[in-house]
């Protein structure tokens, strides 16, 4: 089965670590987590991501700029607002996004 | 089961979640019934009711609990139904919540917390409810109050609102929660506070009729496009939780 690459961006280091651990607990998902926007853009150019999860602490201006950047590179990218931290909702958010993009 | 027909003019739009249709996770120390998709329970038809995203009906064995774990951007409400729950969080709070209390946390930019059964001789049962916030990245906060249990006999006691000055705890969302404990055959009307909101009724104990829909213990009924609902208790000491919530997640920057 094809591996799904997921980019998580969030400003809280411990939550980032938890989210990535939970994503990578699924053998078909590969999570990459970054805390700052420049790093996010850089890694987005290098890897073929299917989903971007926007975590906590990202201000509106940053979010708009990031979304524009990602969409310019890949018009099919799914950008999802992540709620709840490393929690019971993460799996739902990813599965629902994958379902909607089939 | 979703109903969008008019039934006797009483309820136009509703969704019924029978207790036995909920997701179940039994980890031994924790048994949880999920009304909506959560963790390994995934059901695309059970994602949320408006901004109400999680309704978990949890039982935790004595001395056991949820270790330190993080949350962000979510309003998290805990309502103990039996036993005592010990709460600790990264804001320095260490408290015990018991039946009759309600706890609300705004996870905002990020918090860590743990919840343990304080009792050595009995399970703790509690509801864990998550509401999407109307504002992202708020400063995390914690609130807990003790409610007067007599104040819900044959009336709906407000336990949560969006207003810090109002009765109950408050959260970052235009939501109102009420609990009522009714004698058999007692009837009342709940009038929604805000146009566009829906209400999700969850039966804590006993039997009820809402509109013309019969509900038993732990059944849930969501209703929208209405200004008011009629509630009748069909058994003694019947207890119900009403959660009025926006049906859409508004812009929350």
TrEMBL record, chain A:
This is Uncharacterized protein. It comes from Flavobacterium omnivorum.
From TrEMBL, chain B:
Residues 21-131 form the Pirin N-terminal domain. It comes from the Bacteria. Its cofactor is Fe cation. Residues 159-245 form the Quercetin 2,3-dioxygenase C-terminal cupin domain. Pfam families: Pirin (PF02678), Pirin_C_2 (PF17954). Binds 1 Fe cation per subunit. Fe cation binds at residues 69, 71, 113, 115. GO terms for molecular function: metal ion binding. Gene3D superfamilies: Jelly Rolls. Keywords: Iron, Metal-binding. InterPro entries: Pirin, Pirin_N_dom, Quercetinase_C, RmlC-like_jellyroll, RmlC_Cupin_sf. PANTHER family: QUERCETIN 2,3-DIOXYGENASE. Belongs to the pirin family. This is Pirin family protein. It comes from Flavobacterium omnivorum. The lineage of its organism: Bacteria, Pseudomonadati, Bacteroidota, Flavobacteriia, Flavobacteriales.
């Amino acid at each position: 089965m094809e591996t799904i690459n997921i980019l998580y961006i969030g400003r809280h280091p411990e939550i980032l670590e938890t989210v990535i651990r939970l994503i990578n607990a699924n053998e078909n998902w590969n999570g990459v987590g970054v805390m700052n926007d420049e790093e996010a853009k850089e890694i987005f150019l290098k890897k073929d991501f299917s989903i971007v999860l926007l975590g906590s602490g990202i201000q509106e201006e940053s979010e708009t700029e990031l979304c524009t950047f990602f969409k310019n590179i890949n018009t099919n990218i799914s950008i999802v607002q992540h709620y709840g931290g490393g929690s019971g909702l993460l799996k739902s958010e990813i599965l629902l996004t994958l379902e909607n993009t089939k | 089961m979703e109903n969008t027909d008019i039934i006797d003019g009483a309820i136009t739009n509703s969704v019924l979640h029978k207790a036995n249709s909920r997701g179940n996770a039994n980890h031994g120390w924790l048994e949880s019934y999920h009304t909506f998709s959560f963790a390994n329970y995934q059901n695309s038809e059970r994602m949320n009711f408006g901004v109400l995203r999680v309704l978990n009906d949890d039982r935790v064995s004595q001395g056991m609990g949820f270790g330190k774990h993080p949350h962000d951007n979510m309003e998290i409400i805990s309502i103990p139904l039996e036993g005592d729950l010990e709460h600790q969080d990264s804001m320095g709070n260490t408290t015990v919540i018991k039946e009759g209390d309600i706890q609300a946390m705004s996870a905002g930019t990020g918090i860590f917390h743990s919840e343990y059964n304080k009792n050595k001789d009995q399970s703790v049962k509690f509801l864990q409810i998550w509401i999407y916030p109307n504002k992202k990245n708020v400063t995390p906060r914690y609130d807990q109050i003790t409610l007067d249990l007599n104040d819900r006999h044959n009336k709906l006691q407000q336990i949560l609102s969006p207003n810090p000055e109002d009765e109950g705890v408050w959260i970052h969302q235009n939501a109102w929660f009420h609990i009522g404990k009714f004698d058999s055959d007692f009837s009342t009307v709940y009038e929604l506070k805000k146009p566009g909101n829906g209400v999700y009724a969850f039966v804590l104990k006993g039997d009820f009729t809402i509109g013309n829909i019969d509900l038993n213990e732990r059944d849930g009924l969501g209703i929208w496009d209405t200004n008011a609902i009629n509630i009748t208790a069909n058994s003694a000491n019947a207890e119900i939780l009403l959660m009025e919530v926006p049906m859409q997640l508004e812009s929350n920057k």
